[in-house]
Amino acid sequence: MTGPTYEATRRGFERAFAEYGLPERIRSDNGPPFASTGIGRLSRLAVWWIRLGIAPERIALGRPEQNGSHEQFHAVLKAATTRPPAATARAQQRRFNAFCAEYNQERPHEALALQTPATVYRASRRALPRTLPSIEYPGHYQVHRVHGNGCVWWRDRVLFVSNALIGEHVAFEEVDDGWWTVYFASVPLARFEERHRRLWPMASFSAGRSASSAGAAPVMKKRPNDE
Length: 227
Fold this sequence. Notes:
Blueprint: H1 6-20, E1 25-28, H2 44-51, E2 55-58, H3 68-81, H4 89-106, H5 117-120, E3 142-145, E4 151-154, E5 157-160, E6 169-176, E7 179-184, E8 187-193, E9 198-201
Parallel strand pairs: 1-2
Antiparallel strand pairs: 3-6, 4-5, 6-7, 7-8, 8-9
């Protein structure tokens, strides 16, 4: 991957989804390209996930310990394979491959009752579709397309929603006199106060429980030949 950009990250996920299928949810921190500071903290990547039926699950702001097992895995991976780094990219990839083989197929994990991940893994039954499925909203919703400036037309005036949603359709459901809930797909993003034309963001994605119980990553006993 050339960098943490939307394009590069999406290509990586496309390869993973094509091989393993679609997950129900993906847990991440709140940084780019996974999240943004906009409405619903949506990013272009999160919008794509939602279109695929994947629920973004984010840790709470400023709570990296909620992703503790993930951070621990990366620390052990780096220590075992990149310090010092291999002489070439191909040799470095061989180190990664050996690490993955040990982690998934050889080392028992306490969190899996001393089984290896390979023995309990089951591929997703949801395949990556060739085209994104369309979004259908209930008939009583007011549906609006988000234009190239991130705005929708509301009562003959523009209303800024989100740059991450450009080209998508959002829906407004009236929940009280002059109050609307704004949705993207099934995700509630904000309350819209029509009188003052103000959006009040909603907490769209659950932070979930701490992920510190997934088991420690293995320590490589011996590195493969880098030549």
